[in-house]
Write a structure and sequence with these properties.
14% strand, elongated, 15 helices, alpha+beta, Endonuclease III, domain 1, Nucleoside Triphosphate Pyrophosphohydrolase, 8 strands, binds iron/sulfur cluster, 8-stranded mixed β-sheet, 351 residues, single chain
């Protein structure tokens, strides 16, 4: 497989001098990989250096003050990853006597270490023959071998993993080969402008030979997220709230919510709402009990932006509610199935 040695040779001449490439310390490699999942190399480097200075050993990280650790992490986002780092450092320090797991399979048992990170640590630190498969690797392999499978599918992931494993058998050194293919994807076979003219594997590259570089890898576009604007009228009377079960074929079927008016645009003022006459009359009998509350919930293909208007009806109210609505006490409501958006509103407002 001429591709593998060509890539290793290319790497020797073109690799960037990065601090984590001078170490076989699994803890340092782990840190660098987690940081690089959050940001690009140039931005990640100072973070890596700050972490290594503040916490030179895994025991130092295990003993770290969480607030201090999160402060160092600031700007990288996904704070759960920083917390996972901390927890795993504690686990390794306390439960494994400070000994970092040394195999791909043992690394996978650690919280926050997934297949990519486990492969990176196992190969870079312990020379285990396990391939890394990240976005760069998908791109390089899809182009090189002309793979048309959609990389977002499970089937494609298996195809690429199997190919990567076969290629790894031809590598001189697993660490160098893994670094090489990722670096090659990062600086030579780039997403938008691959440098095909100066590419050492040009004559074996299916994408180059067939002019398909810009079509590969195939990646299905995500369905666009639909924005929806929900205006909730929360009628309250004698410490009871008017709710109904959602029966339409829509989100949250069979869950309970309040009177809902869906609008095409965001609204935050009650007077802007075009309510049916009966509901308008009902609302007219009450008073707005507080400033409207805004909330958002992201579903798989929809983003719901809601505004809640709490309307207090007088104690003497005896009129009827819109069809399907009933009064529920807070105790009863606590047992009703509700969307997260409604539960959060109830907790924040009445909790
Ligand atoms: S020829 Fe172009 S598309 Fe093919 S591997 Fe090289 S840089 Fe990537």
């Amino acid at each position: 497989m001429v591709f593998v040695p060509s890539l290793e040779r290319w790497y020797e001449h073109h690799k960037r001098d990065l601090p984590w490439r001078h170490t076989r310390n699994p803890y340092h490699i782990w840190l660098s990989e987690v940081i690089l999942q959050q940001t690009r190399v140039a931005q990640g480097k100072p973070y890596y250096e700050r972490f290594i200075t503040a916490y030179p050993t895994i025991q130092d990280l295990a003993r770290a003050d969480e607030r201090e650790l999160l402060r160092l992490w600031q700007g990288l986002g996904y704070y759960s990853r920083a917390r996972n780092l901390h927890q795993t450092a504690r686990y390794i320090t306390d439960q494994l006597a400070g000994k970092f797991p040394e195999t791909y399979h043992d690394l996978l048992k650690m919280k926050g270490i997934g297949v990519y990170t486990a492969a990176a640590i196992a190969s870079f630190a312990f020379s285990e023959r396990v391939p890394v498969v990240d976005g760069n690797v998908y791109r390089v392999l899809a182009r090189m071998f002309g793979i048309e499978e959609d990389i977002t599918t499970t089937g494609a992931r298996k195809t690429f993993a199997a190919l990567a494993t076969r290629l790894m058998q031809h590598a001189n050194d697993p660490a160098t080969y893994n670094q090489a293919i990722m670096e090659f994807g990062a600086i030579q076979c780039t997403p938008v402008a691959p440098d095909c003219l100066l590419c050492p594997v040009q004559q074996q590259c299916v994408a180059y030979l067939t002019g398909q570089q810009h079509r590969l890898p195939v990646k299905a576009k995500k369905a666009p997220v639909r924005e929806r604007f929900f205006q909730y009228l929360v009628f309250r009377n004698n410490n009871q709230l008017a709710m109904r079960e959602r029966t339409d074929r829509d989100v949250w079927q069979n869950l309970y919510d309040f009177y809902l008016l869906e609008t095409d645009e965001p609204k935050t003022a009650f007077r802007e709402l075009l309510l049916p006459d009966t509901v308008n009359e009902l609302a007219f009998q009450g008073v707005l009990a507080s400033v409207p509350t805004e909330a958002m919930q992201l579903l798989s293909h929809q983003r719901i932006r809601a505004v809640f208007y709490l309307i207090d009806l007088p104690d003497t109210f005896s009129g009827s509610l819109p069809t399907g609505f009933k009064w529920y006490s807070m105790a009863e409501i606590s047992h009703l199935p509700k969307p997260v958006l409604i539960t959060n509103y109830l907790e924040n407002t009445f909790g």
